[in-house]
Write a structure and sequence with these properties.
The protein is mainly beta and 301 residues long. Helix content is 5%, strand content 46%. The chain is globular, with a radius of gyration of 22 Å.
């Protein structure tokens, strides 16, 4: 990987956002930027844009006329993706577990780029147990214990996230005057010893590996807010409660693990003049970004 003097930040979601692109000594040569996390439950999808130099004030440019190809490990073409909109290319093929895929992106105005990664095996969540922590000072929390079996004879890397469906309700004289249903990505206190970032502050995702429990049964510990409340005043009754909670356990590749870990460090250092510079990981040759596999399991409460 090239030695970079500036930093790269790429959105993980398929949305436009501000990006900081590395400066490698040539201010006149933009490069292609790739964003693609492939999973078994959806076909290949790749976002292609162009980088800009450190002295360029123009906005990032989505690339809509590239040739985006997915190949197998023997470099046989699986399919060529079609441009949909705003730099997004989509195919019809669903990735298969434990298969290596090669991404190639060609464009006459940029250096051709390649990247490769595989799709890990799914992880079965055996069970999830919960208990309530009563904390008048810091707020009540729901303690979650997730149990799963880590595969033997392989190093595994994980990402955990939680989402809740919440209901807000206002009633007057038995009639509903306000009703709102929303899905929220929960912040978590990562209390388990496997989390490198510890239990504070609250975080939206937890990254960890199986170094401490390789090939064993693991019960993962974490906490989320327990924000249900209700009240009455002047004839109005209102309440807020969590209806359902879904826990996602991602079995991710090493490239995705490095990318998400370095991106989190970069975001924590942003705006801090005393922080050490952080280089965001990229597995794209001749360009920037990430092409990586993630196998998702979930459990509903």
């Amino acid at each position: 990987m090239n030695r970079l003097l500036f930093l790269l930040s790429i959105s993980l979601a398929y949305i436009s956002c501000e990006k900081v692109i590395p400066f490698d000594g040539d201010v006149n040569t933009p490069k292609l930027v790739i964003n693609s996390i492939f999973q078994s439950d959806s076909s290949f999808k790749v976002h292609v844009s162009s980088s800009r130099s450190v002295i360029d004030t123009a906005s990032f440019k989505n690339i809509d006329d590239a040739i985006v190809t997915i190949k197998d490990r023997n470099e046989n073409i699986i399919e060529t993706l079609n441009h949909v909109e705003n730099g997004f290319y989509k195919g019809q093929t669903f990735p298969q577990e434990n298969q290596t895929y090669i991404l190639e992106v060609n464009h006459p105005n940029y250096a051709n780029i390649t990247a490769s990664d595989s799709l890990p095996s799914p992880i079965t969540i055996n069970s999830v147990d919960t208990s309530t922590i009563i904390d008048p000072i810091n707020g009540n929390r729901l303690q979650i214990s997730m149990n799963f079996d880590d595969p033997e004879n392989t190093q595994n890397y994980y990402l955990i996230e939680t989402y809740s469906v919440n209901e807000y309700l206002v009633i007057k004289n038995s009639d509903t005057t306000e009703y709102e249903l929303d899905t929220t990505k929960q912040f978590m206190v990562l209390t388990d010893e496997v989390f490198q970032n510890g239990g504070s502050p609250w975080r939206e995702q937890g990254l960890f590996n199986d170094l401490l429990f390789n090939g064993q049964n693991k019960t993962l510990e974490l906490e989320i807010p327990n924000d249900s409340w209700s009240g009455s005043e002047d004839g109005y009754d209102w309440s807020y409660q969590t209806l359902t909670l879904r826990l996602y356990l991602h079995n991710i590749t090493l490239s995705y693990y490095y990318y998400r870990t370095s991106l989190e460090l970069f975001q924590n250092a942003s705006g801090n003049p005393f922080a050490q510079p952080v280089q965001v990981f990229s597995n794209v040759e001749n360009g920037f970004g990430v092409f990586a596999g993630s196998q998702i399991s979930f459990f509903d409460l």
